[in-house]
Amino acid sequence: MRLTHGRAAALMVLVTLLWSIAGVVTRHLDAAASFEVTFWRSAFNALGLGIALHWMRGPALWRGLVHSPWSVWVSGLCWSVMFTAFMVALTLTRVANVLVTMALGPLITALFARLFLHHKLAPRTWAAIVVAGAGIGWMFSQGASANEAGALAGIAVAFAVPVAAAINWTVLQHVNHGNDETHDMLPAVLIGAVISSLVTLPLALPFKATPHDVALLGMLGVVQLAIPCLLVVRLSRVLPAPELSLLGLLEVIFGVLWAWWGAGEAPGTTALTGGALVIGALVANELVAMRSPQRASEKQT
């Protein structure tokens, strides 16, 4: 099916809706916690991706996996950090804190592109980075003043997600050089899922998950992760990066609402004020970027 811009945008909204269910689902687990939660989700994600990519690529997928270029393996390592840190962070602090921290991804990507790829950043992006950084700093300082060790640890772990995502995107930009004839990067998601599950396996033992927990985490691995990850790679060919980033912010809104409605986890005042700074800065930056005739040359997300 040929994707029009409207269909791609609608599918991106669906992607963010699928991504956003992780927080509320983890709040309904019986016994699984921390690294065991991460292991089961990553394992089912790897299983789902393996089946899907084998159907799409055939046996050539497995023959070429080991000999994939360095960019695929670096991207896979980044995916593994994102998969692992996200779930661990959810077990340490509120869903809102995790999602707001993750929303820094596009701004960190822009900063890395400036530092490592020498892309020019507009003054509005520098301003957005400062404001968003102030928002995260506010959340962290309030957690420290309230002596909420779990909140501080959760925010610190969650911060690894946008950093890994920024490295991932910077590597892709370096390899692609804006050319459509690029390496097949879909196997990187599979590599990330396998690494995440292998690294967390010994930390997850002994297993405490009930069959109910395994069913929920299996659903997350396939529905919340494997399917939307495959979709977003396809959508990136149609939607410009600024628009993808802006639509991706819906995950924060959906995720907070899911946790509030489905688990009774109301976002705290600190998350609301800090989140307003982060989301406001990012929305303003991306809206201006989408209207700017120079957005393509800036290569920002």
Automatic annotation (TrEMBL):
Keywords: Membrane, Transmembrane, Transmembrane helix. The keyword Transmembrane applies. It comes from Piscinibacter gummiphilus. The keyword Membrane applies. The chain crosses the membrane at residues 39-58, 70-92, 98-117, 126-145, 151-172, 184-203, 215-233, 245-263, 269-289. InterPro entries: EamA_dom, EmrE-like. Pfam families: EamA (PF00892). This is DMT family transporter. Residues 8-139, 153-283 form the EamA domain.
